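I'd like us to work through together how a protein chain folds, taking it slowly. We need material for that, and I hope you will provide a protein of your own picking. Go ahead whenever you are ready, and we will take it from there:
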Amino acid sequence: MHSHSIDQWTHDHVFLGSRHDRHERRTWFVVGLTAAMMVGEIVVGWLSGSMALLADGWHMATHAAALGIAALAYLFARRQASNSHFTFGTGKFGDLAAFSSAIILSIIAVQIAYESAVRLLHPVPIAYGEAITVAALGLVVNLASAWLLRDDHDHHHGHDHGDHAHRHHHHDNNLRAAYVHVMADAATSILAIAALLVAMYAQWVWADPVVGIIGSLVIASWAYGLLRASGAVLLDVNADKNLEMVIRDRLETNGDRVTDLHLWQVGPGHRAAVISMVSDHPLPPATYKRRFDGLRGLSHVTIEVETCPHAHA
């Protein structure tokens, strides 16, 4: 009889994204860039009495706060990755941060829409040159930030192992949330520059607030997409039906049947599965687990096998 220490059978629950450290570093860099831009705009705006600079500076503060949430989520997830209090690790912290960021984005969209509607009903004089300069400056910072936060490792394509070819999404919703924040700001800067140029040369004062309303709708749609994606992970929605089919195909052989299958995301690129099976001739769970060799993204599997009732008869 072999004796084994309990440590030989235990395993960790570190389900962080494959590029967690890279994404964390880049997010902190963008937080610094945004904060520096924010401070610069507020200081120069206050010294020069420019309302446009001041307003954009405080607007930048909202984005800096949201990006800060993303960066802190990366930091906390990494530092607490081995903390046993988190049953399935800290991989979902990014999704929690993304959900929070999406709510902040929604509030920004409502604020822009409200201010635009007020401007449409009660036009105010615009210092065009100053406003265009601020928008252009903001655009440069946001495009640089967007380049840093681009996710060039979005997903792996699955390999066809004689089963269904499948794809496992490796979306990091926390990085996506940070990216959407800077892209939302970049989009509003582009729209603002276009509207200000039209308003300045064609004297269409209404162009600026109308474009503001359009911009708020674009931001709202991005926020909604982010809420759905991160909310689905937080609520353990099974977003990978292809992987579920592959699992069933590999297990249901020689009369074996899967009676219950729970598949959910525990971190970017990491899935967990709890599977119940019935079999006429049950094999050890480890034998069934070996059938998943080569399935990328399946990081934590629990299998229970029962003898089929009619096998006793």
About this structure: The first helix runs from residue 20 to 48. The two ends are 33 Å apart (CA to CA). The chain is about 60% helix and 10% strand. Residues 35 and 114 are 25 Å apart (CA to CA).
